[in-house]
Every structure is written in C-alpha cells, then in structure tokens.
Amino acid sequence: xxxxxxxxxxxxxxxxxxxxxxxxxxxxxxxxxxxxxxxxxxxxxxxxxxxxxxxxxxxxxxxxxxxxxxxxxxxxxxxxxxxxxxxxxxxxxxxxxxxxxxxxxxxxxxxxxxxxxxxxxxxxxxxxxxxxxxxxxxxxxxxxxxxxxxxxxxxxxxxxxxxxxxxxxxxxxxxxxxxxxxxxxxxxxxxxxxxxxxxxxxxxxxxxxxxxxxxxxxxxxxxxxxxxxxxxxxxxx
Length: 237
Known about the structure:
This protein is of the alpha+beta class. It has helices at 3-27, 200-236, and strands at residues 37-48, 51-64, 71-73, 80-83, 87-92, 95-99, 105-106, 112-113, 119-120, 138-139, 144-147, 150-154, 157-160, 166-168, 174-176, 180-182, 187-190, 192-194. Strands 5, 6, 9, 13 and 16 form a five-stranded antiparallel sheet that branches. It has a three-stranded antiparallel sheet with strand order 10-11-12, with no helix packed on it. It has a two-stranded antiparallel sheet with strand order 1-2.
C-alpha cells in the first residue's frame, strides 16, 4: 500500500471516531448537565524507508465544552442548578466525581443522592443527609440546606485548581486529575435544572460534513486501489 493510502486511512479512522462522538452528543442533547464533547485531530510524522517521512492523522484526544447549558425551572425541591462556574461533588464507587447534573433526591437511608444512587457531598466532602420526616427543604444561593430553621448542610461547589484537568467518565460525571477548590462565587438555584449545552443543529451540520469527508476519502482509497491493480496487471502481462 502506498503512503497516500496510509495517510487517508488514518484520517478515515479519525473521522469514524468523530462520528461516534457527534452521535453521543446528539443522543444527550436533552440530558441534564451533559457537556458537549469534541475530537481533536493532530498530525503524526513517521519516518519510512522509501521517503523522507510519512504524515498521518490521529484523532484520540477529546475536548469537553464547559459552556453553560440552559437553566430551566422545574419546581422540584431537590432540583438545583449552578449559576456560574463549578461542579457538584458526587461520591461514586470509583471515588469523588464532579457533575453539573443537579437532579437529586433523598433515599430510604436519608442520604441525598443522584438518580443513579450516588451520594451528594457537602462542602467538606461528606455525604449530605436528609433526616426522615424532614419538612419542606429550602436551599439558599450559597447551597445551604435548611428546614424549619434547622441547618442540614451545604452543597459542596468546587472547581478545578490551576493546572488541574477534568476527564469525562460516564456522560455527566468527570474526574479531576488534581486538586479542586471551593467556588464561593457560584450561586445555586433551587427548583431549577441545567440542561445539556449541546447545540443539536450545529452537531447535525458537523455530522453531515464528517460523512461527506469520509465518503470522499473512501472514494480516494477505492480509486487508488484500482490504479494499483491496473499497474500490477500491466506489469505481469
């Protein structure tokens, strides 16, 4: 196979990965707290024996958009949205994770949990509890939970420290690869949820572009393959 074909095939592989990412974005356009993801293409230069070098494409790095999603009123007493930067802290089997999805509820053990049953953590990193029989819950702008004047705890709103990156794990959960710090500037809105920040129309438009680029690359590979076959036939005659 000639170098041009290798280069085209590496690009085709990247386009297939990007199509998968776009499909995931579109599928999660209505998922609470979801963050749009993109794929980063880069060039890899490889030395070869019959040419100075071979340029190939790779697309394995992913970038997550942290742009805010639309905040919609739900009226749910345990629904909360973050107005500003920052993340909720969620306790998962893999450790503490960050999330913008604020659809919470109390479980039978009196813990405030996500729909997956993961416990929501307070400002100190401990699980937040809602005692049995607690009346109407009020959540203030700084994340403090109270009922009938009794303080119950405070939602822990954090943000990655300088130099810390966040890595997506499963849709709305992120893992920080370094330390985090409290974000005292963020404001919590009770009875609201933040939606996905995916723009479906732009993602559909990008999907069409990727499909056309893939078809063009496929056409090139088929044409090049036929050219090589014809060259072989000519040589062996």
